[in-house]
Amino acid sequence: MIAETGHFALILALVTALAQCFVPLYGAHRGDRALMSVAGPAALAQFSLIVIAFFSLMHAYVTSDFSLANVWQNSHSAKPLLYKISGVWGNHEGSMVLWVLILALFGAGVALFGGNLPLELKSRVLAVQGSIGVAFLLFILFTSNPFLRLDPVPIEGNGLNPLLQDPALAFHPPFLYAGYVGLSVSFSFAIAALIDGKVDAAWARWVRPWTLAAWMFLTIGIAMGSWWAYYELGWGGFWFWDPVENASFMPWLVAAALLHSAVVVEKRNALKIWTILLAILAFSLSLVGAFLVRSGVLTSVHAFAVDPARGVFILLILCVFIGGALALFAWRAPVLKAGGLFTPMSREGGLVMNNLLLCTACASVFIGTLYPLALETLTGEKISVGPPYFNLTFGLIMLPLLLLVPVGPLLTWKRAQAWPVIQRLWAAALGTLAVVILLLVVLHRGPWLTPFGVGLGLWLVLGALVELSERIALFRTPWAMSWSRLKGLPRSALGMTLAHAGVGLAIIGIFAVTTWREEHIVAMKPGDKLTVGGYEVTYIGEAPMTGPNYTGDAGRFRVMSGNREVAVLASEKRRFRPGNQETTEVGLLQAWSGDLYAVMGDRMNDGARAIRIYFNPLISLIWIGTFVMFLGGFVSLTDRRFRVGAPKTARKLHAVPAE
Amino acid sequence: MLNFLVFAVLAAAVVVALCWPVLKGRAGGPARAEYDEAVFRDQLAELDRDKARGLIGPAEADAARNEIARRLLGVDRRMPQAQAAGAGKWPVVLVAAVVPVAALALYMTIGAPGRPDMPLKERLETALANNDVQALMAKAEAHLAEKPDDLRGWEVLAPIYRAAERYEDAAKAYFNVLRLRGPTAETYADYGEMLVFANAGLVPKEAAAAFAEALKFDVRSPKGRFYAGLALKQDGKPDEALALWRALLAETGPEDSWKQVLEAQIAALAPAPGAPQLSDEQVAATQNMTSQDRENMIRGMVDGLEERLKSAPADLEGWQRLIRARAVLGEMDKARAAYSSAKEQFKADEQAMAALAQSAKQLGIE
Fold first, then answer.
1. Does the ipTM surpass 0.90?
2. Is the dihedral angle over the CA atoms B109, B113, B119, B124 positive or is it negative?
3. Residue B308 is assigned to a structural domain of this protein
4. Per-residue pLDDT tens for A276-333?
5. Which residues of chain B lie closer than 8 angstroms to A12, CB-CB?
6. What is the pLDDT of residue A217?
7. Residue B349 domain-assigned?
8. Alpha carbon of A565: minimum distance to chain B alpha carbons (Å)
9. Which end of chain A is more exposed for a tag (fewer CB within 10 A), N or C?
10. Where are the domains of chain A?
């Protein structure tokens, strides 16, 4: 009964989404306010219905209702509750329901918090949002329906991929989807503006919080995914330029560009057409990502099961939305009035530079991801594009961008002079240089890249701090004055400082780990010792162990620093019962200076174990940095500008504020 | 019924939500220009605040103010087109009416109306009342996982496993019965038989040992003797097997369930073409036939078997019987054809492939 209610709710959501798409669009076309205002309630109704469907499915998972084919394929009654719940989105069908749930959530968000949007714009945005909902609900109901029933009903399920039975991964997809799908709102705003023929400062201000929210979720989603890969896959790395990782990274880069170009539209009424294009591209890349992961084009840790019918359907969605949006863009973009002028050396110029470099970097990732696929399809030749390619292309393109990050915020609008900027940045430059020289002296035997990489990150952090202290006139006015200026600073400015500093912290971590890590792959017998990263690691031995749905061997390592025991690490090799799949659990000792990372390998013939031990210096800075970026986005989102309310219209007696 | 009541409530809620703006008559509202103005006035206010706090220099502030003011003046103040007041209602009401109908129509095509939920816990609790064999099995398994020494549980479970064709589990269950009740000829024979079934008809070493034990406890055990014969045959001692089986057949009454199988086996081993599978009446009938008629009848039965396997090909034993019968009838080409069809059918099943290859080798068609 609950399962069938969920199925009906999902179907009703599809029909409601159709109404949400066509009625307001027709209303906006005719200038009929009554028809336009259907959009809001329709979006809320669609969201509520998908909530019902989603929780019905979750109920089936939690109660192990194997009469649903989807539950039978992906769940098991012996699984811990958390993974029964996360199992809902640990598979293709369920994750699509989560996808439309978040899509509808953003639609409902626009309906609820869009009180400051003009009705025409709001109804068109919600109509476009509704059309995306229609496409994906059709996809779910006709190619990937999780509510299909089985008869006879099996008594036990097939279980969830053990690799996915992990707390970080339980929450990684919801955040990532919130990012992917959040970009649909920017897309809807862009399409609505194209239909409307009007892009101005107000539009930029309205679209910005949604882009910001999507970018924040994408940031945290990617960071969680990378963290999961780091400690669950047991390869010691945090980023593999895996096509599926790239699929999430490309929209992130374009969303970052969009955030910056929207500032120019708001402040200077320039870059309007470009900004619209970026908004379309950002969501298009999200769709491309969805296609790559779900069509079976890729086989990867993350990719869901292969089904050509689904691939074709997603390709169709891709063509309709990307093709349609770009066609509309080509047709309507010339209608948009060009905005203010500026010289290349100006804040606008800096932001254009930022956009060009971010988009080029994204293009290099795009080529590296899709070229091997295209080549294999056309010629059957298999090539592997790995880190060397990305380091050389993506890395080299990002280098000037990162060097320029501290400069940008110090430039003035319209026309800027170089000298005042240099004057303000000398402290940061000197600090960076000092650290680089110090590191060169300490690491005079190499690696040579470490000091420069760490210096680059430090330059960003110090640059952000210098910019902040400039704004609050630190050291030039009394402390109290600076403090009150800091409190009065627009939240968006504070957010920018945090985000730029966060990038710097992450850069420090990335360079330290990739150029300076210590790696040992050894055969150890109980009692064997190894010195890694200043620790003395002793392999104590291993013991068999049993978990709720797996058995395995747990190896233990004593970690000594000097004569003090710091920790006893446990690394496990687990065999999960349905399917006998093996996973590793990493023994991890985290410290500010870096992580000690121990993984159990296979048993050797002579009773020894193959053991991999890494020391990853400063790696926690990568995740701290991404969290600081996320925090920056959040602080920026609380800026009061985004809460400018709907106009009060006392003049018109019949008028009441829109919802 | 309750389900459709819930659907009706959902659909009604959606209809009300869609009609809400029209019913409330909230057609008015500020124009686009006023929203734009609100934003630009806020920008001006923000500029003043920044200037007061010294975040922006006076000259830059003036320039920015001019720019914002220009935008403010440029706001498009044309009022929106006249409201199409009455025309707005009917499309909404129409759409609102279509929504539930369309949803219900789609649901009736792809949904499973009236299917109840089947949460595992509830299913296990009501298993006995619903005669739900799978659930009963799961319950018994859970019980025996906790109390592995419950003889009664294993005794009940073993034949259920057998009926569900879970032969390995059945063998384990019989092994536990042996362990708990002590050895008997019957249990040993059942245990061995399940091992044979789990091996797709081949007698593994443990099974042969089990049959030997069974015969130690009861030298006349029919099952023990039958499978001991099978083991001999598969060991390449057909004469000994035939002797054992013929002795067993002599003691077998017409009502014994294994009679047919036994006769078929003997027929397969007997030097002359024999009847693979004949009832007593048929056997009686064949005695009055000419040898030509007899052979025709047998061929007819074998052809019937082949026809049946064409429509229901997932029957390993059937295929093995067909291959054997063709070989015994001397139709080696047809035997090879049946063998390759069977290989095609079971190519994903390693055990079945092994069993097929084994019989093909014995019959000399490979």
1. no
2. negative
3. yes
4. 999 999 999 998 887 777 765 555 445 554 567 777 888 888 899 999 999 999 998 8
5. 10-11, 14, 99-100, 103
6. 93
7. yes
8. 41
9. N
10. 1-164, 166-404, 415-516+623-630, 518-620
